[in-house]
Amino acid sequence: METLSQYCNVRTTRHKVLIVEDEHDNAGLIKHTLERAGDTEAFVVSSGDAALKTVSEEPPDLIILDLNLPVVSGVEVCRILRSRADSRHAPIIMRDRCSSACGATTGR
């Protein structure tokens, strides 16, 4: 017997997005916007070190990475992620203070 989700071809898994942002208000706005549709689960960390640990422990489907992080910059976090086999191909959107007004920059 088919379930309703199979019949309707509904996606039952949620996308996991890691938001790396040290500004609490910005992180909350991004998280709310992503989770509003219901098919995304967003996690917030406020430092580059925490981002690297989180990606190793539970790889997300997407990383939204602030460039202006304290201690370890977003650029350095991106370099480290790209050098590791477990995160080399993870999609990363890099943003800075201007992103909300100027548009996001995608990092590769």
Measured as a percent range, the helix fraction is 25-40%
The overall pLDDT average reads 85
Structural class: alpha/beta
Known CATH architecture: 3-Layer(aba) Sandwich
Largest sheet: 5 strands, mixed
Distance between the termini: 44 Å
Radius of gyration: 15 Å
User: What is the CATH first-level class name?
Assistant: Alpha Beta
CATH homologous superfamily? Response regulator
SSE layout and pairing:
Elements lengths: L3 H4 L7 E6 L3 H12 L4 E6 L2 H10 L4 E5 L7 H10 L8 E4 L3 H4 L2 E3 L1
Parallel strand pairs: 1-2, 1-3, 3-4
Antiparallel strand pairs: 4-5
Helix pairs in contact: 3-4
Could you list some keywords that capture this structure?
108 residues, Rossmann fold, five-stranded mixed beta sheet, disordered C terminus, single chain
3D architecture notes:
- 21% of the residues are buried.
- The N and C termini lie far apart (44 Å).
- Strands 2-1-3-4-5 form a five-stranded mixed sheet, with helices on both faces.
- The protein is 37% helix and 22% strand.
- It is globular.
- By secondary structure, it is an alpha/beta fold.
- It has a single domain (14-107), classed as Response regulator (Rossmann fold, 3-Layer(aba) Sandwich).
- It has helices spanning 4-7, 24-35, 48-57, 74-83, 99-102; strands spanning 15-20, 40-45, 62-66, 92-95, 105-107.
- Helix 3 runs parallel beside helix 4 (74-83).
- It is built from five helices and five strands, in the order H-E-H-E-H-E-H-E-H-E.
- The model is unreliable at 1-5 and 100-108 (pLDDT under 50).
- The longest helix is centred in the first third of the chain and has 12 residues, at 24-35.
